[in-house]
Write a structure and sequence with these properties.
Growth Hormone, Chain: A; 0% strand; 19 helices
Amino acid sequence: MRPFYEILLAMEIKRRITNMLILVLAGEIIFGLPFHLARFFRPTYLDVFNISNTNLGDVYAVYGLTAMISYFFGGMLADKYSPRILMSLSLILTSIGGFFISTIPELSTIFIIYGYWGITTIFLFWSAMIKATKEWGGEYSQGKAFGILDGGRGLFATIVSLIAIYLFTAFLTQEVTLADPSEKRKAFQSVIILYSSLTLLIGIIVWLFLPDNNANAKRKESIFKNLNKVLKNPLVWLNAGIIVCAYSAYKGLDNTTLYAHEVLGMNEVDAAKVFSYGSLIRPVAAIAAGIIADRWISSRVILVMFSCLTVIFATLALNDTMLLYPAVVLLNIYITFFLVFAIRGIYFAVVQETKVSSNVTGTAAGVISFIGFTPDIFFGSISGRILDANPGVVGHQNYFLFLTFIAFFGIVIPFIFRKISKRNESIENN
């Protein structure tokens, strides 16, 4: 018979694995409807909804605006209520929007739905997930916790996207470029319903199996007192700046399928596969970055990786398909995927370096996200206009030049962060 302590240890390991698995599933599927549809099926999305890159960019701007407000207030909410309640409600409400958009409504209605999603995916969900993950990692495993979260999210995203691509092609009787518009519409509707159903299912799973736990629910501190503590910390602001650059680089991947289609000459299905295969890198990149970050400090790892990104973006900005072979271009794209996913996997691990107390983690996550995810407001509109202003190769060159500029600031901000952090540590030691 196994000793009692071994049984307890096994139960604790099982509990931790289950909790992280639920966070992974929920943390990715919540963004499937707002982002995956247009990310994996960009040409099809534009065609079925009969909109331009500029229209889609403006749609994301609406999402970003409601999300930005939601980040701020959602952080304070996460310090008061259980992640189980907040996350499950968020998923269920988001799925309702998905079933509605599967009817392929007009552009004006799409704006409303994305504004609605900016609330349902962020206000109730985001800070609650960040707080739950930070608590899972404890004091010494923040890089690992967030690396596993983002890596697992990436793996799940890839699995679902491949299923979605298979489902999409199963509805087509011929090659996608020759498909009848009504046939393509039905195929894409099936994909939307798939994502909506999964979102609803995982919302139910969160409600049933995620522990109803909130260590700080009974604390009586004023939300405004907590907010004041967070806002006075300059490292919180710099952490937010790091995420602005990192998230912009991540959103920069959204046009990969369009680049493969318009510049590399791939059809819509093959272009979608480029992004799906790139997404396979995410688990490896995020988990590896998390392990390294726990040994080498997250902010330092991010600085090095942004340095590499700056070089790659500059190279792609100069490429007119005459300088580099398509295979070399694809290699650079997949290296970009690795670096972006690695940075994304650990940028919330930097919160530990800000030295905020555990009872204001939700508020800190809300403030950092409020600033850090502002690219949801401006990035889509800017990138859409860059691409539409010069369709084809030149537009994509200008797009990568824009990303080069952002990546450069991704070097500067963590450099300043580390300088201030070292100064604070020196003051504390003396």
